[in-house]
Structure formats: structure tokens, C-alpha cells
Specification:
Layout lengths: L2 E4 L10 E4 L5 E3 L5 H4 L3 E3 L9 E4 L3 E2 L10 E4 L7 E2 L1 H10 L4 E4 L1 E5 L5 E3 L5 E4 L5 E3 L9 E3 L5 E3 L6
Parallel strand pairs: 13-14
Antiparallel strand pairs: 1-5, 2-3, 2-4, 4-5, 6-11, 7-8, 7-10, 9-12, 10-11, 14-15
């Protein structure tokens, strides 16, 4: 076990996956941006702004629940500080409007409640999910738009 003390840049809960921001403060990791997906470890104690807390960077953290032994755990896209399985990562990515996200291993589940922390560098994964919007929708990002008459407009080839 390798414990490191950090100062939090936001409220951190025990079990949150954290990264170190450019200001040197630890924050909850997420897979949206490369720097925020660069996890340094898992918080073993809670931390509030202005205090300090401890992070396990290379050990076993055993306060989770519902894990499947031998599954890798990744930085979550939608839950800052959270972990997900690979299928959970893919599901989160397909539900988002992001062009992609950074797949980062935090560790491998060794029991239903514990992970062996084995961090990797973030790897960008493209989002191949298509989005379909109704003519009355207000969203401006997408691959195609479905009109009321049932026809489609391919937004990649449409001209203003």
C-alpha cells in the first residue's frame, strides 16, 4: 500500500477516484478530459477544502460493493470520482453527446468489495453512437434529424 497525502480542491469522499489538477489540488476524476482522467488513486479518507486527506496509489481498497472479481474498474464518465466496468464505460459513453472519452483503468476487482489499484494512462475512445433528434428538438449536436413527415436530414452533409 502506498498512501499519499493531498489537499482537496473540492469535497472528496472515501472511495472517490482522484486526479491532481494543475493547481496541485486533488479533485474527483472523470473520463471526459485527459487531465481529469489521469487518476492518481483512491481516497482512503474524506477531505474537505482546506484540509488534507489520504489517497492509496498502489494497494488494495476494499470499501466498494457489488464488484465482479477480475473485472477491471475504470474512471467513470458521468459520475465524478466513480468507477465503472468496461461495459458501464461503454454505456455511459453511448448515453453522452461526447465525441469520445478517456478510458483509464483504476484497478482490478479482487472481491465483491475490493480493487487492487493498478492505474493506467488515459486512452481516448471515440463515441460511435449516433444521435437522432426530432424536428422540434433544441439540441444542435447530432448525426441526423428526424422530421415530422418521417424523412431524415443527414447533418454531416446538410448545408445551411
Amino acid at each position: 500500500m502506498s498512501l499519499v497525502t493531498f489537499r482537496p480542491g473540492e469535497n472528496i469522499s472515501t472511495g472517490d477516484v482522484v486526479y491532481v489538477s494543475v493547481s496541485g489540488l486533488a479533485r474527483k476524476a472523470n473520463a471526459v478530459y485527459s487531465d481529469q482522467a489521469s487518476a492518481v488513486g483512491v481516497a482512503t479518507t474524506p477531505g474537505t477544502f482546506g484540509s488534507s486527506f489520504r489517497v492509496d496509489t498502489d494497494g488494495v481498497f476494499a470499501l466498494y460493493s457489488g464488484l465482479t472479481p477480475s473485472d477491471n474498474q475504470y474512471v467513470s464518465i458521468l459520475t465524478s470520482g466513480g468507477i465503472v466496468t468496461y461495459s458501464g464505460f461503454v454505456d455511459e459513453l453511448s448515453l453522452s453527446f461526447l465525441s469520445g472519452a478517456y478510458l483509464t483503468v483504476v484497478g482490478r476487482a479482487i472481491s465483491t468489495s475490493g480493487i487492487s489499484i493498478e492505474r493506467t494512462r488515459p486512452t481516448f475512445v471515440s463515441n460511435t453512437a449516433s444521435r437522432l433528434f426530432l424536428e422540434s428538438g433544441t439540441t444542435i449536436v447530432g448525426d441526423a434529424m428526424l422530421l415530422e413527415d418521417g424523412s431524415f436530414i443527414d447533418l454531416e452533409t446538410a448545408t445551411p
